[in-house]
Amino acid sequence: MARIPGTPLETLELPEDPPKQTDPCWCRSGIEFGKCHFERHLQPRESPWSALKEASRLNDAKYCGHPLASPVTCSGKIVRAHTVQLEGALSTIAVDRHVYGLAMKDGRLEYGLIGLRKASTFSGFCSYHDAELFRALETKPFTATKEQLFLLAYRALSKEVYAKRYAIRTIPLQRRQDKGSDALHQVNVQSYLYLREQALRLGLRDLESAIADYDKALLARDHDRFSGYLVFTDKTPDLAVSAAMFPEFDFQANALQSLSSAECLDLLTYTVLPMSSGGVIAFVWDSKSARSCEKLVASLDRLPMRELPDALIRFTYEYFENCFANPLWWDSLSGVQRERLLARINLAVSPTDDRTPDCLKDDGLRTARWNVIAKEWF
Ligand SMILES: [Zn+2]
Ligand SMILES: [Zn+2]
């Protein structure tokens, strides 16, 4: 979701003449040239450790995302809200309390082991609001009530908004990573980050408009304006996801909406909830977004049952960075299989490459170790 295809994103060019010290820098950081890229190649490189430390500090930026958040109502302590129920869900796909999570390594998303405590968490709400908000999910068995489905959607969207804001906050940090390198490398790094920031901001605009609607529904306890589709699995699916996306193409390569539209886009939330026996995959959307979401899901529903698991895996890797995997499953795949799934998610975060309409069509890859036993519109 990093890129809005069709939107003319400008690119950076090096100025022909050396800028003045007080000119805005060519990299469009908003900083004066003299304090930014002037003699950048001579500046000491930043240590990866200090960058990591600073990034994690930004991730801990304290704020509560609840619509009623205020110094009076909030508990002060921000918890790392779990985007899928931590003990109940993630532990079912963990090995020695670790799952695989995606992280950037040499400019590419790769899987690495992360502890359950760190997996899928974000400092999205204060402890009071986190407990209050998700009580119906965290303290009751999952029976797919309207409230539970709304909460899955709310949590998925909150996570997406938080992740996008965080990604934007880390851009200035990443912009400094070209210190001590030659001009060509500087232009490449800055161009990539400049495009990425524009794409992130475009995505955030629509996510923020959606979360405003979700907040209204939350406060009014208006769960009826949400619809969705549930898929139940026989064994524990080897994945856990809680995220949101803008439907673009369906499973038969039909276009659903143009992501370059100036209108607010239809938004779909997606949750893969593994359980100790079986699991549920939930597509939930607000009635405002019904048009594209219903078409996308209908195209999935038309597939034969036996093809659904791999279709869902394609969909997951096509769109969601926030995708945790069972290490036993992932390690059981061949190098080619892993590469083909990772290629999808790396395309998703590329600011320069577009998806093709047939991205969700059957590519022949078979990696699922579970079956779909039931599906249901609600
Ligand atoms: Zn600069
Ligand atoms: Zn709060």
UniProtKB/TrEMBL annotation:
Comp. bias intervals (Low complexity): 1-12
**Where in this protein does the record put region Disordered?**
1-21
Q: Which InterPro entries match?
A: SEC_C_motif (IPR004027)
Q: What is this protein called?
A: Uncharacterized protein
Q: Which domain of life is it from?
A: Bacteria
